[in-house]
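User: Assemble these into one structure.

Assistant: Restating your components, then the assembled model:
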Amino acid sequence: MSVDAALVQRCLASDPAAARELVERFQTDVLAVCRRLLAHVHDAEDVTQEVFLRVFRSLRTWDNQRPLRPWILSIAVNRCRTWIGRRAKGPELADYLHEAPDQRPTDDSSELVREIRAAVDALRDEYREVFVLFHEHGRSYEEISEVVDRPVGTVKTWLHRARLELLDRLKSRGLVPEEEQPKPQT
Amino acid sequence: MLKTFDPSEAEPIPPQCRATVELLQRVLDGDERAESLDADPHPAACLSCRERLRAARVLLSALSVPNEPVSVPVGFTDTILSAVKADQRYRARRRAFATVGGLAVAAALVIGVWFIAKGTSENPNPNPNTPQQKEVVGQPTPVEIAPDPRPKTPDTAPDPRPIRIGDELKSGLATLEPPKPLTDSVALAPKLVSALTDPFTKPATPMGADLEPARKSISALPTATSSGLEPVTDTAQKAFARFLRDVGSVQPKPN
């Protein structure tokens, strides 16, 4: 029996220590994915809590032949999609509530990271999900395929398109240096 | 604002650039090291691939910046666990209510079926007079409006055995005898209607002897009306005669 399966078995036996272990093991990943996909700290915390409610509700349906992390992340991604859809229908917050002042030091690299993040936020939901999971969370194609419930080939295509869009954005923002023109021969 | 990517707008990759583009993808996937891009001679001869290469280097440098670590708020685990416990308690309570409700409905159904079966077995022919009843022309027989649910003198002695629903169900008695069909009640309806309406539609029964004084009194009404005096009926005459007799029997006291 795998470590994941043993942990789930203990959770199903109503072992409070096992429940705590499961939450502590995956909460950072879930919270990070939710923060990146929702771009809102408090929404991310609410959705993370909702994700774990659903995880514990449906632990019996988990296939113990498969790894637990992609399954939990797939629930997180689905909840984020639902939340984004719900948020789109709800009233819009005032602009000043969206953005908190950034206290981080600004240099070239942080500016580039901010640009990349802004570009990622502007991506389509599917592209953003695979980009965040691949480049920011280091998940493999196979794992992402399980999380988004699409074939590996589709994941690769989405990731490729996401990169192209990002490059387009970086070029439009002048962050890709222009090619040095060859000096005219005298 | 970045325009939405449309695959149909994607520029086709020329065959000579395909190898470079695939190499770029492998590097971005992490399958190849970034140094392998330097070994590719094609970008030096192709403007598009040089642009792709520059953009890929920018992207790689941006992606190489480590993400800021996600800090979990203090007490977040406890918040999640308490929410999970509350959710489990709520769901367990809801399940219990659903179970109890289901059992109550099932028990009510069983008891209802048993009562119907019991009522049918105690009164197999609810209207035994119906087939034998014959109406004499000109003399309508009194119709029983509602059958007595419990006969005053039962034909059979009550079963001294205590009633057990389980036994009835096991032996199949509760289900073998079906409840009284609705058609029986429907068949009774015309008789009930006629019993209710006959007194008003058919000629009245001749008055009995008890009502004769009243009839005489009423018949004397026209005369009384013309003379202005109340009619004297037999009853009044008898009462007056009794009064005189009593008065005559009284001996006056000497003063």
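Chain B touches chain A at residues 1-5, 7, 10, 25, 28-29, 47, 50-52, 54-56, 58-59, 61-63, 65, 67-68, 70, 72-73, 76-77, 79-81, 83-84, 87-88, 91 (CB under 8 Å).
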